[in-house]
User: Fold these one by one.
Assistant:
Number 1:
Amino acid sequence: MWIRLTLSILLFISILLLPWWVSGILALTLLIFRPAYEVIIAGLLIDLLYGNVETLPEMLISFTTGAAALFIVMHILRGRLIFYEYH
Amino acid sequence: MNFHQHSRRDNRYIPRAFWMLLILSLGILFLNTVTNQSISKFLRSIASPIWRVEARVVASPLGAYFLSKESLLKENKELKNRLNEAKLDLLLFPVLESENKELKLLLGRVSGDTRLLATVLVPPHRNKYDTLVIDIGEDQPVSKGDLVVAHPNVPIGIISSLNGKTALVSLFSDPDRETNSLISGVGPTTLVGLGGGNFKIELPRSAVVNVGDVVRLPDLESRVVGVVGEIEANPTDAFKKIIVNSPINIFSLRFVEIVVGN
């Protein structure tokens, strides 16, 4: 839980202070193990802070929909991955 | 030693919470558009103190500790080379500038514009949109649509949104954005943004364009917006693609000027 919380905080800080690809890596890391809805909120935040979305096509091709697409892809991928614990 | 498998949840279906969040997010984006970016303005007003602090730290001597010695040496060498090249070009500049002013005076066209200096708080590499956030907002005599130039007089974009103390600048090189322009020897053309300070122009194959030709805005000042960098021509195509590069590096911009009332 603490790892997820830390990564989420880092994700939102990186949106303000770091290049976009750092946020991308953090988003991917969050999505690898569990459905991380904060990734979609992060995409929305990028669009609201830096975007100039004024028309419907721009709304459909934005960081929000990109984050949603990444979420779906990782959700499908997670279903096909098996994680083992070593005891 | 035992290897235990994690319990596998049924991942055939996308969770309902995802769809609700997506619809809510798109609704917020739509609401933002309809209310003239009021939500964006509110968020930027919250974020602007953080950006200002970051800009001050980077500009201060403390910021130098975050740069490697090698990158500083490389930047130093590059700047010295550019300075030497610029010195040669500058020899002719005062003569040409004086001649230009005299000719405009003779023709009854005197240009004089008011400019405001602004600090770049958020450069374009922070996001994939070709936008900048600058530290001038509604508290200054600027308005939406004002031209933004980088030193010395290279137009880079226009103010697309104003907040309390910040403004969002939409760059001309924003992907698929179209800007009217002029190429010497060719005439009026349309610059289409490719992102990252690059543009493309489509011209008939018969148009005479060379690498290094200057692309200007069609205004009285004839500001240079780019330089022809590459020409892609296929013998079977009726058109050729011209790649135009900005003469300045938009990712390393720290200061810009706003041409007020343009």
Number 2:
Amino acid sequence: MVSFVLRRLAISVVTLIGISMALFALTRFIPGDPVSMYFNPLTFEGDREAAVEAVRARLGLNDPIPVQYIAWVREIFNGNMGFSMITGRPVTELIADRLPATIYLMGVSTVIAIVLGITGGIIAALRKNTIVDYATLLGALGLVSVPSFFIALLAIYIFGLKLGWLPTAGINVPNGGWGDAIRHLILPAGIMGISGSVGYIRWARSSMLDVLDQDYMVTARSKGLSRPRVVLQHGLRNALIPLVTILSMSIPSLFGGSVVIEQLFAWPGTGRMAIDAISNRDYPVVMGFVMITTILVLVCNLLADITYALVDPRIRL
Amino acid sequence: MTSTSETTPVLSVRDLTCEFSTAGGTVRAVNGVSFDLAPGETLGVVGESGSGKSITMLAILGLLAANGRITGGSVTLDGVELVGASEKRLQSVRGREISMIFQDPMTALNPVMTIAAQIDESLKRHSRGLDRRGRQSRIIELLDQVRIPNAVRRARQYPHEFSGGMRQRAMIAMAMANRPRILLADEPTTALDVTVQAQILDLLHDVQVETGTALVMITHDLGVIAEVADRALVMYAGRVVETGTAAELFAEPRHPYTRGLLASRPTLDDTDGGDLDAIPGQPPNPARLPSGCSFRPRCDLAQGRTECAEAPELAVLGEGRAAACHFHTELALSERPA
């Protein structure tokens, strides 16, 4: 177990270095330049070219990309992820400000997705080929066919504008308390959770159907155990094993989804920060966001592997 | 066995009929099966795959798959009807009064629970008087009883850490946890190595002697019947075609199917040195049984005789002796030494 974790950590570090190199290069290749944003060509007076050149030189943007990369890495080890080229604030500070809101939203939606997905899948499996099963599958198919931003817009329109039940922007109001925070959370987390659950429903259903046919299920019933105990203790435990992998693979896509949802609901998370940074060519912020995302994904994958070994005693790490 | 008439049977099955609804229509997998089981006796049930042996046992416990149901007959445990009993009532019977051992110990144990946990579950359910410590020592006692060495350490292991024979021992320990009065063993040695088979049969016999439980041993191996069973039922296409003591069935089979099974056994002193005398043809598909006697197409006595167009009744031939063949007397004559 310990050697597995160490080995996986070593692999993760290599992955991280590779991704950082690739992305560092890619962000520099994107047309556009953060410095030209400093000096608006319509209002700037004087030698704009020279001004731009001076700032580029000061920021080291004229150095070859590998040189810039090494400088960036050196600073990372000093705990410095650079400064935003737009606001001048340290990237670490920007991310520290934004990350909790994103993790909060993603955490809640992941829990909703898992609970809905697994319960839905189990119910569909237990009621196989009945109206309940078909309704669940049809609902899942419908939801997977509609992009989550469209559902989000629809929900904003209905629950926010027409009915006026729920706030549609932001994370809370000052001194709003728990109730307010939850009201702000319902739409974005609910939509992300429901969209995320769709895949899990289908997987949970087929995984559960596999398990229900197993001999040990008959054994469990032959011991006189109650139906819920047979399904939950013997069925679910085994059906969860493949789901752990599915779950770990879906975490990166949750990040993608959260960028869109954060934008729509004016959620003060890293997603909006990333979009702003990319359109402004704010290199240090983009790199910071990507690095943090990569680390989270790698950590989640590692946790998934460990969980896999915990739920399946046949796996030795 | 003559004692059956004197003792009250612990389990009594009468005209049990089970049907399955499949894509191809309704299939009658068990058709009017009757038998009695006396306390402590061993009843063998022989037949090919698909003859309804396992379905009969599952039906007794109310464990038929979702598309199957009991459409007729009765199963009484100490005179109390089990067919149509509530799920709750059946749950209190399963694992306490009647336990079951399955064919393949590789798949019949839950891979994600320790052996101890799987036995404990059954104890927790039925032996309410035992506390945690009591159950713990009972688990070790059971594993000792089925001769699993290092019981304390083995109890904490998972099924994949056990060999096939050891798993079947664990399965037996689990089934015996609440000292049931009836043990249904569904081909308990079929999936095991030949050397291990004998050990498991010996173990079952010893456990039975120690606990006094009645044993129903399903098998397609007549050798097993000869070794362990007091009495045996021969099943074919969902029906009982012959009953008798193991000795009677071996010495003078009264049904051509039983005779065929006996003839198809390889023996060491096989003098003609040739092929095995296999029964010609295949066991019938339960969805498309032949009309009349189900064994007719494979039978060397039928030969187009008109009687066989009608299904034969199970004719009582004596105490505990019965055969479902129109020509059982012919067989009796042919078996008699000249």
Number 3:
Amino acid sequence: MNAVLHLASVSRVHGEGATEVHALRSVTFRAHPGELVAVMGPSGSGKSTLLTLAGGLDAPTSGSVWIEGTDLATLDNAGRARMRRTSVGYVFQDFNLIPALTAAENVALPRELDGEKGRIARRLALTALEEVGIVDLADRFPDEMSGGQQQRVAIARAIVGERRLILADEPTGALDTDTGEEILRLLRARCDAGAAGVMVTHEARHAAWADRVVFLRDGVVVDETGADEPEILLAGDRA
Amino acid sequence: MSIRQAMLAILEQGPMYGYQLRAEFEQRTGETWPLNIGQVYTTLTRLERDGLVEVVGHGGADDQADQGERHVSYRATEAGRSEVSEWFATPVPRSQPPRDELAIKLAIAVTIPGVDVATIIQRQRSATMASLQDYTRLKRTGRAATPEEPADLAWSLVLDALVFDAEAEVRWLDHCEARLRRAALDRPPVRRDAPAAAPSEEIVR
Amino acid sequence: MRGWRPALRIAWRDALRHRGRSILVLVMISLPVLAVSAAAVVIKTAEVSGVERADRVLGAADARVRTEGRGALVQAPDPLESGWTPVGEVDLDAPLTEDELRAVLGQDARLVPIEDGSAATRLDDRVFDFSTIGVDLSDPIAEGLFELEAGRLPDAPGEVVVNGAMLDKGFAVGDELDVAGTALRIVGAGRDATAYDYPVVLGSSQDMRSGAVNLREWLVDAGPVSWSQVRELNAIGAVVVSRAVLADPPDDASMSEQLGYGTGQEETYAVAALIIVMALIEVVLLAGPAFAVGARRHARTLALIAASGGTPAQARRVIIASGVVLGLVASVAGLVLGVLAGWAALPFVQRFNGEWFGPFEAPWPYLAAIVVFGLVSALLASVVPAWLASRQDVVAVLAGRRGDRRPRASTPVVGLVLLGIGVAASAYGAVTAGGGSGAFWIAGAAILSVLGMILVVPVVVSTVARLAGRLPLTARYAARDAARHRARTVPAVAAVAATVAGVVALGIANASDEESNEATYWPQAPMGTGVVSWGPNVLPGEEAPDPEPVWSSIEQVVRETVPGVEVERTHGLAESYDPNGWTSQQVVLPPDLEDGEGWGLSVYGPSVAVSDTAAGAGVVGDVLGDVDRALAAGRTVVFTLAAEGDVEASLVEETWREGSEQAVDRRVHRLDAVMVPWDQATSGPAPASTILPTAVTDELGLEVMTRDLRLTGDLDEATETRVDEAVRGVTDGTYTYVERGYERPDEAVVVLLVLGALGGLLMLGGTLTATFLALSDARPDLATLSAVGAAPRTRRRVAASYAVVVGLVGSVLGAAVGFIPGVAISRPLTAAQMGPSGEEAGPFLAVPWLLVAVIVVALPLLTAAVVGLTARSRLPLVARLD
């Protein structure tokens, strides 16, 4: 099966000389459709760098990043921006909604930036909001919503327009346990429906929602779990 | 031992025979701690000996008459009931930590030269992580995902306990790893001139 | 002070940390401070008053006494500055005598006569004027009036010294100077105490008579002359400049009332107050957004202060302290630079000033006031953000949400009320325009309107945001974001609006004034034709030149210079140039036609022209045929307002002598005349009121002479200049003019351009401030946009949209508000004008729609384009610290 996201021997060096920092060292990484991959590691392990590279917000020092079969290095800035609008959805720890726009407008943002007509973009946005269960809050502004609701909007924004790669950076970091699980459930559902998800987290409990957990240490993938079909504790409970 | 009190608590809801009792227990705890039927009857016998349960006869099991004495139903006595309420009223003591093989393993490994502790930690973490993923999968897919009956909720809470337990273990492993690294960095006195802030900054968070 | 120390420390560190924002505020505040303090230095240095002037006009004397007649007067302590006025009848024929002055000043007072006058002399064929001072320069009392630099002081009658400007005219030491027939020898040159570029001749009082029979002036050497002595001398009719009084001026409140200059001062104060208030508003509005952004950055700090028990006042202090710090630094820097700039500009400014500047003077009280102005503007700019910040929702801020409270609903009400008062006061001022107080009402109303507008801005901004739902993404974002950050947006929008209001108001005033000027314009020749006229300068004692040869040479030169232009002489009855007497000629209609429809026509040419053709007299239009027929028939043509037909008119010749009350000679000739109505509403003033055919002048023996040359043909400005230069070369006293209809004076155009440029600059400033502060505030949003897939140019679009929102809202609002004082002021400005045909005209109202359109639509769009092109097109990364 073709990977939606493929990082091939990607390295990223920040700074030069004495202040040189190797954020990633020759990391190879794939995310397939229908798969949620968690990237775990302590601070400074390079997990956020991995995510910015995956979204084309930053370019690798060496190696290549492929999204749906396209090498990002072959795209210019505008092309990468288009890629983000059409193929990649970002979810952030701090939600990063634009406070001046309503929930629906925030969700419609990628479509509108892509030149979609306002009305169509809004309809897509409402569909996405429906999917995350808060279509009734469509016309509220972010500061009139709770953290969990805001993160749902952010997820709706990441999935609007059938995007097949979702990149989530500590999506539950600013939420309480219960709300966080709701968000994870949404991400999970999206991936079960066929999208590829990459979630950066430092919490094992959240990483456990993934099909696969990748451990990053000092810019290197040190281990990986769950690549095989998982064992079920008790066969009797298999649904 | 908590199995004893747990069975007593289930019996408080009404008379049951052994198989019934085991099913009820596993319904609530999600077969996490499987009981064999012998263990159940041994416990019931002891409870009867201590006067906490009593036999109420062979009722309700006519269709299984050919299984003889096994059809005996038990019921909690007055003393049993007070034992149950005392159990609920008393916190589970942490005074004597359960024996933890992993902690012991690491403690020993750290002191023995030539053992790659980092690898031990990583392997353990992957393993724990895998279990954690399994627990989580059970949590989000099975009857625990959408608890409708009290027993389902009970099962999901037990799963949560396992999840948090595993998570705690992963976090503890992370912590061990960080401390070992710092210790490794502090050890060689050769790198005196290296900026002191760099390593510590990495570890602080 | 104790409570302020932490606030000031935070403010200082913050100012250092956010250099860009600090520099922005520093520039906003220090620029006006710099400009005003430089101006103050230059003006104060250029201004020679009080004791400084004393040395110039008194020399070494204790006082200078001047009398023009007998009769009480009141004077200011410094009469040269603030004047004097008689309080009763003045007997001009009986000036005070020296004895009368000595009766007040003391018997041993020494009085040295000094004459102050002017004269003219001829150098080649040029005649020019100069000042004369007649005083005995060798007397020690005159020391300081003149500083000799070459030659020697005059020591005998007939000898004079001159100043540098006189040398520049072409005179040299040793030359002779012919003044009113007297030959004076220049024996020295030097520096006059007062005049810088105006020629001055100093000589003995006999040679340099002022010319006025009743004016006498003395330098007095009598010890200090007290204020009471001054009053005594005033009582008998003398104006006194006393060194002692100048040095220690008495309280002159009582005098000022009598002198009537109280109102003048008030006017100056009112104008100064208007300027200061408007400047303050503008500076505050421009610097405000920076403080608003600072306050936002400090929101968390302030919330923490509040959470740890700080009062709102303490929270406010943090923001106000940054106003104190930045205001102080900006004011002091502006002051120092301003004083330096003023000092550096002095030699340059001196060149444009006729009077010697005083010694370098830094007016510390004024400068201190200017520093206070800078400080106050910074404080005011920080007060509103500080106040808003102090009432933010602490819980919300600490929880990481915005803590803005909704704006009170009462603000637009107050604003609308103020606007209403502004309209009413403007209307009142416009209606009561006659008194002159109308302008004050309108000025006050302008300030009220602007203040009211500022209070309405938040509502307008919110409304725009609410209506922004259908706009494209970036515009919608900009509008909503602007409304969300009102503390930052409102002052910027208000600054733009205030600027636009000012420009629109002045533009309307200017356009109305121009329209009034145009409507009341008196042409001096038919449209498109040129006139070369000449009148000789004849000094007393000189013989008037024979005009016809001069005219011939002028005509010849014009023909040679511009061969393509048709040149024609127009003739009129001869006028005598004899300074001792002159003859007037006047055509008189029968008494029943003198008023109403007969007389009353405006004329630009000679009163009585002489010509045998209509064209020869410059007549154009429908009446050409009638006039030609009449003249061909040997009849006189009289232009009237309405009356027509034959009439018996008469030509009255009167000869007058200098000083005579009645004509010494009077002759009357009968004229067979035809009245021709002249439609001045369409044709403008008539070329002449009467045209005599040559048959009549020959018959009556009237002397006819050339009055001017009429030029027709291609007369562009270059041609006009060439003709002018050529005829100037022929003789003195020529005047060349080409009628082009009403032309806007160059300086008016320059003023408009400067106004427009300044307005544009301020608008750009306001818009840029708001936009770039908004962009820096919008970093996280832009980062999000980038992550969501916005193309890099989105940042430019957002910036441009922001500029459009700020610029457009501001300019529309400002233009609307600018109409209030603009329309109002056009009334007193243009009411009660005299039209070209003598009728009452005005008030005029003209709206410069092009200017308004440029400012309201084009300028914001241009600003947006500039912003869009200059903004970086790189989007920031979502940065998460880990």
